[in-house]
User: Fold these one by one.
Assistant:
Number 1:
Amino acid sequence: MSSQWLVGCAVYVDGQRLEQPVTYLDALDVATEHDGFVWLGIRDPTADEFSLVADRYGLHELAVEQAVTTRHRPKIERFGDVTFFVLRTTRYVEHAQLTETSEVVETGEVLIFLGERFVITVRHGEPGDLATVRSDLEKRPDLLAWGPWSVAHAVCDRLVDSYLVVAQEFETDLDELEERVFGNAPASRAAQIYQLKRELMEFKRAVAPLQRPMAAIIEDRALLPKEVRKYFGDVNDHLLRTVERITAYDELLNSILQARLAQVSVDQNNDMRKIAAWAAIAAAQTAIAGVYGMNFDFMPELHWRYGYAGVMALMALVAVGLYRAFRRSGWL
């Protein structure tokens, strides 16, 4: 069976990585023997592949089922002695210009199984590369010495920091959108505004549900080691800042959308007034022509030498007068 799904397997003792190679099957025994812990990194496993890990590390079947599927709500749960994290990963998608189909944020998932002697990270999707998290954490043996919770913190910290980056990029898109709606540039269509709002909602679904479980785990003094709690508190602060930004962006997008719809309504009213003004000018000419088309016997103008020229002049004067009146009133 291919082991491409297993992207990392190492044992850490007193903050240092053991140099001896280990497999995921015997790593737990080595970690127990040396009073350390195992960190397994897994990428997009199948059910059969992950079942091998689950059997060896005693993972709960409900958590295992979620580990091989995607699109779960962010949460933190306990299954016996194992703490289970579901975290959404995000990445901003660069685009030259916002359109009705632009993808602004790409999401994925990272799941963490945290036991006394092991931590297992499972990644789904492109966002949320954990290789840099491992390499950076290995440069901090003082943090790694705290055990599996140091890995959980490092992963949460990296993902929440990525939320702030995506939020900052969203703000840039909002500034450009606002400039196009209220500035001199060609205004954005309502569909473009709505597309950005949909992408913001996707981002919100990835971030906002994590607030309550993150706050709860910080308050659980029996579960979270004292030395790690303040670090998780910092992660929670960044998470709250991101949620506050998303809420503000959502309100701003609603305002921009309402303003754009109001602009469309005003433009339509202006078009209707122009149509009505030109119709009135044409109606005046039609009325004059209709009078002289009734074929009455006693119409002196019909036998007047300058009758035709006079009627043409009258029609022109009426048209010019109406045009000037509509221009002064702002209808044309």
Number 2:
Amino acid sequence: MRNATGRIAERQADRSYSFPKMQNSRRRKPSLQACRVIELKHLRSAIAAADCGSLRQAADLLRTQQSSLSRRIDELDHHLGIAVFERCKSGVRPTRAGLGILRQARAIFEEFDALVANAGAVQNSEAGRLAIGFCTSLSAGNLQASLTEFSRRFPLIDVVTSERSRTRLATALRNGALDILIVTGSLPLLENQVLPLWSERVLIVFPQNHALAAREVVYWTDLRGETVLLSHYDPGTEFEALLTSKLVSPQDRPKIERHYVSHGIIKGLISMKTGISLVLESDIGANFAGLVYRELRDEAGPSCLQFSAYRRGENENPALAAFLDMASSRYGSAPPGR
């Protein structure tokens, strides 16, 4: 733990950043030359300062002088016409406008990292690289099995995985940062090719002392009066659409709460007995203590969601072709475009 002297020294170091007054920063207009003079070093300095909460610690992290880091943030403020940070007792913290700038800066670095990785893959074509995006669990199920088999068959191909929201995955596929997406439902993107893969059963998950835990099978109609917690991340939207199709009458539907959190957080909320949720069978591998899974049925039998692989038609990555050949052989579908 830092002593009082260390904390005082750190606060004094942070004061070397010339924080603009907020009322004045609102009046300034972004520099017309901002797009030409803002460099990655400015964004990297701002991200480090936000992560550390201290200019001194950020400078140590980037192995630069604190004065140089302060100058870069000051230049960023000037060219954007806003104050990215404000001083606080513990160091620095982003302003409201700065939060948006930092969010976009992180996205820029994600794309930059993808650019560098793609360049490396081109240079090292013998090994190859395959970038896969998905919205499902890797703890068990067909996706895990497919990636395991692919790595066994092609040990020299570097497989990079990305789990994000559907919108960000679609953007990454469109701009070439990803080679293939494996998602549920449809992905309405032009010039994409689709390979149907597998389907997974839909399960209900609830605390072990829940009234439904005594049943081996749960029917959709049993959800009436319950609170169903769904993530805004996929396949939350497919779950909600499926629930609506199974329970046509609003009076028969459970209460739905949507949360901007991961599926793991949803399970934490279930453990707190705030509700129940829907998951796919591959999610069982990432079980939480005290939770129970049951198959969801109607009169026709189990309910399932279909997974498909999406790729850009012009993508000629040999590693992607190898993966599609393996997937088509494993799941009995013809590779797209052949």
